[in-house]
Amino acid sequence: RTLYRKAEELILALLMENYYHVPKMDILEAYLNMIELAPNIYGIEDGARFYFDKDCRELGIIEVLALAYAIPRPLFFHEALENKSVQLGQNIYSYISTVLDFSKCINLS
Questions:
Q1: Whose CB among 19, 41, 69, 70 lies 3.0–4.6 Å from 77's, allowing a Cys bridge?
Q2: Is the pTM of this model over 0.90?
Q3: Cα–Cα distance measured from residue 25 to residue 108, given in angstroms and rounded to the nearest whole number
């Protein structure tokens, strides 16, 4: 949430990768298992259950992208979702469309 915390996370990730030789995928997994996605909801598994009532392995691409969209500002995302914000809907649609269009350009889909 703060510049200090982001710097701390960066330093920890660099130490884990370069000093302790932890693979990047393991660092990403650890991060995804501890990030906040709503008030008192931490990690992708809990986020999937909270927002979609599904196991994270059952999520479709649109649901995964919606969770990814929430990561930078999870409390704002949750509040906007609860308030049924039209702007949030437009922003998510734009984000998902952009990511899916980009994935077609690099053959991810």
A1: 70
A2: no
A3: 18
77 in Cβ contact with 70 (< 8 Å): yes
Phi/psi at 19 (nearest 5 deg)? -90, -45
Percent of all residues in the chain with a pLDDT value above 90, rounded to a whole number? 54
What's the first-to-final CA gap in the chain, in angstroms? 32
Per the CB < 8 A criterion, the answer to whether 70 and 37 are in contact is yes
* Strands 41-42, 36-38: pairing kind: antiparallel
pLDDT at residue 53 above 70?
A: yes
Assess whether pLDDT exceeds 80 at residue 71. Answer: yes
Stretch (H or E) spanning 36: strand 36-38
